[in-house]
Amino acid sequence: MKIAEFPPNETARIEALHSLHILDTPPEERFDRLTRLARRLFDVPIAIVTLIDVNRQWFKSCVGLDIVETTRNVSFCSHAILSDGITVVNDATLDDRFSGNPQVTGEPYIRFYAGCPIRSESGHKLGTLCLVDMKARSFDADDRALLKDLAAMVEQELAAVRLATIDDLTKLSNRRGFESLAQHALGLCKRIGRPACLLYVDLDKFKQINDRFGHAEGDIALADFSSLLAGNFRESDVIGRLGGDEFSVFLTNTSINEARTVLGHFEQAVQQFNRHRRREYELSYSVGIVEFDADAHRDIGALMQSADALMYEQKKQRRAAVH
Ligand SMILES: Nc1nc2c(ncn2[C@@H]2O[C@H](COP(=O)(O)OP(=O)(O)OP(=O)(O)O)[C@@H](O)[C@H]2O)c(=O)[nH]1
Question: Which residue's C-alpha comes closest to atom 16 of ligand 1?
């Protein structure tokens, strides 16, 4: 067996993949529809939309196999993303890249594989749409053209998900994206009995930045604040711009005390940013922190409401202090 090399643009590729915030999200009909279609059209037992992450291949959609990921080492698709065209393995036992692969020598005894790379809008090969069979097969030019068309449909769906869930200005999740990812992360924390916290953040006097320095400067301030959020919370935290100058962060596996510590570091980062930039305005914000409590919070919406109310209290106190 040969383990696939990393593509030359691996760091940028992983960045492009992570920026979609799609890994570990629940199954979606828009992708399942396409894997079902692929399975029927090619009459194969298994069709998968895989995404190649740092150390694993994760399945956004998979029909015919009851797993959601494998290690990257044993992944056929890690080989397929090295090529611009379709990778076809007619009989894996005869291909020295795969003959010793545990998925060939053992369950599910893969023999045939055909994978077409799926690209991000920026051109990175994020994964594949692939077909798998337990018997050796041929794959002709018409088959290749059809698989390419289906892979293009997967790419369109990926772009549509991105458009619907990512905020264009800051590249953070928008409200819809945030709620969906945070709800999913909350479910995970509940299942494994770990604490979780939510921060609701609203910039102070942001309207003044727009009014005094123009809308474009307001946009820069929003983008700067987003970068500070993205740079100072963990990759596993969910960060979103809910709209206007409102943001939220969902911290997985974090108690309220830990969340306060993280927020302290964030505050230092914002102050340092203000000192270094020496602009005519400073970034400042009000924030509410709430720890998830199953008795008080039905869902992520209820948690956001509690944190929003606390944020508003802080904002009122700050205004009163200024007056
Ligand atoms: N530049 C820019 N401004 C925006 C954008 N979205 C919303 N805004 C503006 O953000 C401002 C938010 O107003 P407020 O919620 O009153 O904000 P504020 O001045 O921070 O008020 P306080 O929260 O009470 O301190 C409004 O003037 C919106 O027009 C955007 O994408 N870019």
Answer: 207
What digits encode the pLDDT tens for the residues 184-209? 889 888 888 899 999 999 999 999 99
Which mutation among 207, 285, 319 tests ligand 1's pocket best, with the greatest number of atoms within 8 A of CB?
Answer: 207
Q: Note the pLDDT tens digit of each residue in 37-48.
A: 999 999 999 999
Residues in the chain: 323
Domains, in order of start, for the chain: 10-164 (3.30.450.40), 175-322 (3.30.70.270)
DSSP 247-302: EEEEEET--HHHHHHHHHHHHHHHHHHHHHH--SS---EEEEEEE--TTT-SSHHH
- With a 6 Å cutoff on the Cβ, whether 314 touches ligand 1 is no
Strand extents, DSSP E, 162-272: 196-203, 238-243, 246-252
Ligand 1 atom closest to Cα of 243? 6
Is 40 in a helix, a strand, or coil?
Answer: helix
Does residue 244 have its Cβ closer than 6 Å to ligand 1? Answer: yes
* pLDDT value, residue 162: 86
CB 146, CB 41: distance < 8 Å: yes
Give the N- to C-terminal CA distance of the chain in Å, as an integer. Answer: 72
Which residue, judged by its Cα, is nearest atom 13 of ligand 1? 207
- Does ligand 1 lie within 6 Å of residue 219's CB atom? yes
Q: For a substitution probing ligand 1, which of 166, 210, 317 has the most ligand atoms within 8 Å of its CB?
A: 210
pTM score, two decimals? 0.75
